[in-house]
Fold each of these.
Amino acid sequence: MSDDTQILDIDAVDAYLREHLEGYEGPLKARKFDIGQSNPTFLLTTPKKNYVLRRKPPGVLLKSAHAVDREFRVQKALENTKVPVPHMYLLCEDDSVIGSAFYVMEHLDGRNFFEPTMEGESNETRTAVIDEMNRVLAELHMVDVDAVGLSDFGPPGNYFERQIGRWTKQYRASETGTIPQMDALIEALQQNIPADDGQRTLVHGDYRIDNMMFEKNGTRCLGVLDWELSTIGHPYADLAAVIMQWQMPPGKEGRGLAGIDRTALGLPSDQEFIARYCERRGLPGIENFGFYLAFNFFRMAAIIQGVYKRALDGNASNPERAKKLGQYVSVFARHGLEALKA
């Protein structure tokens, strides 16, 4: 069996699609995408049409993690909104088919920017892509969750209190050793949660440029991808996630903008991006942004720790990269502590 099909039973998928997906015709081939550390993702190719399959990984999983059913539901709900998403074809929650739940969606024929520097692109393209990223984010936070049937997609109460509690539990469950910076950040966040301002919107949970697909020869977003962490929550978490990513070093590992002359590349400053977002949503500005930034560093550190633990257990989607990521937990935690002091 080839590496491409090592955790995907192509014959079983083919038989299932023949029975459940209208217009499907084999023969079927599958290739696993290298991207994605959480839910293994495959390109399914047939003579007439391509699809994408995302599945839960095999092995013992943390409770509530890898919820492909939630990914499917939220993208299905957004299909007729101003938030671009791929079309959802079907969800299979029967573990007996391939060993875990999976869904099949449209394959978007576009381009993906792995880094916000968008090497090789013109300044005009960079400016337009980042502004489109800003527009889509604002549109996401203006979706009427009741109208699209997602009012129960997240529990009530203070989002940040809930999330800090959840990710602290996840972090403790996957902890492989004591990281003092992480312990300090968890305590500091718990003591500095802002009062609930009443904003309750759909949030993506991992909003960044490499989770978006754009036109091949344009700058329009074709679809926002990877909705595993989506829920009903506070919009500033998503906005701060973008700024957090940009504070990372540039290159394949950090995929950020630290030390980059943004003006020379046609890229906005953090403040310009935040101001444009506030303008689109009709907001006067955002107070205490350092907390939201610190929260994102904390959550990403917890996620990376989980990926690292799965790599040690032999369940990571990309084991080699997962083990390298493990060293960044303390780095993210340190950035979070610095953001709180800013």
Note: Residues 1-5 have pLDDT under 50 and may be disordered.
Amino acid sequence: MVIKVFVATSSGSIAIRKKQQEVVGFLEANKIDFKELDIAGDEDNRRWMRENVPGEKKPQNGIPLPPQIFNEEQYCGDFDSFFSAKEENIIYSFLGLAPPPGSKGTEKAEESGENEAQKEGGEDAGSLPGAQKKEEEGETATEETEEITKEEEEGEAEEEEAEGEEEPGEEGEES
């Protein structure tokens, strides 16, 4: 099984180039066998990618942007789903590959058969942990925002007090 990563080598978008580099770099670093297919220079690659991305995964304009990831003919996902799988440490399941022996992914897969069940159950089942994670991250971000806001309010209050102390002194000098 070969992982296929569809990229656009002549993309003008810095965001797309960074996403492509992150996917390719991760696969290389983890010695995952993959094939990089250019959609910018090869019409057949572009057509195949567009036809094989599932309808529910296509953007509103109907044209999926690279990088798009497949395991042979099986669609794995786009950059966002790749990133989520990487963060949740289920990248091998996402790619439809067996984790290397002794890796954390092996232990996780052995502990619960959820990864395969989620993959078989479709994207909805697989997206639940991600949604929970985002909610947790949202709470964390909210807490951090509240702390920053409190610090700013305290700083402003101190500034107002300092200004208030200067005013009587200034008035005394003028009188």
Note: The beta strands are 3-7, 34-38, 68-71, 74-78.
